[in-house]
Here is the input.
Amino acid sequence: MKFLAREQALIHELKERLLGARTLDAIYEAIASTLAQLCGADHIAIGCVNPDGSAGLQWKTDTVHPLLKDYSEWAQDDFVFHATVVQPNIVLSDTQMLQGRPLEGTETFQRSRSAGLNLRRVLASLLFAEQGLTGSIAMYGEGSRPFSLRAQWVLQQIVPYIARAMATVRELYAVRFERDLLKVISMESNPSLVLNVLGRRVVETGSAVPLLQKWFTRQELHDGVPLDWTRRVLELSRFDPATDSSLQTLVMERGEEKLEVTFTPSTLLWAGRMLWQVRMHERPHWLRADWVKLLTPRELEVAGWLYKGAANKEIAHAFKCSVETVKVHLKSIFEKTGVNSRGEFVAQGRRS
Here is the structure.
């Protein structure tokens, strides 16, 4: 098939508008009237994937919103979704999708009737780009006559341009949202992560990465997020009254060091969904960092008792060793740090 002269002019204008589209609304405005005219559609709807990776599509339509507003809840029962998901970027008609099954027996038809619509015909495609799923487009007809093969062919020619526009919108949205999030968390004095309700990382401050690498092994992290924290966020996001509120706070200890973590709902929403801000506050060893590197783990424990003002007998009792063994540790500590007494060690060794 080939475009007629009139169609070519309309398609050229449509492509130009898509190139400049930077929002889902702009994509809809760029294509809706032209495609309705070219394909004889009564209704048009486009959906863009949620930029945070959560399930579902954000839909834009002027007329079939009552059908699609809760789409994520029944998509698995939609014959359109089942047919298009196995043939991405291919425009299919309702006849091809149903393969002889009666339309009236489908969940989609029943829901359209309940929504006050009389949708009997559809052309649709699930849109994929290099990044994966980007969105969907559907055109509906109310009459008994099916969409023509030419209408299906016309929409097929436009699908690659719509998919690319969807991918651009998704990327721009993610960049803008990340920038807004960074503005918020940059005001925090401590390292922070922002996680979605699935516990996946959305953005973090630069100082959060080395801190997590310090406190967790690679096996304990998934995509930069501690596995335990993912489980916490999943549990907290249920908003079950029975959920233990203590999950919102966490204190980890390692010797004299502590990592205090809080999980709080963010003031920002992403694709209409809540986010969790994870704030981290590290309370480092009281001893200055260069001296920490000089001492063995046991000597660091002895140093902690010195900081508390403990006598040799107290330290020996705590370690279940002799006072002479404690003295050996003290001698080694003093030699490594170049001090001559307990008081001098604590005074010079305290982290500023």
The chain has 15 helices and twelve strands. The first strand starts at residue 43 and ends at 49. The first helix runs from residue 5 to 19. The radius of gyration is 31 Å.
